[in-house]
Amino acid sequence: MPAPYSYDLRDKAIKAVKGGERKSDVCRMLNISRNTLDLWLKREAQTGDYQAITHFQMGYQHKITDWKRFEEFVQKHGGKTQREMAKLWGDNVTQQNISDALRKLELSRKKRLTDMLSGTNSNGRSLKSD
Question: For residue 35, what are the domain limits?
Answer without folding.
Answer: 7-47
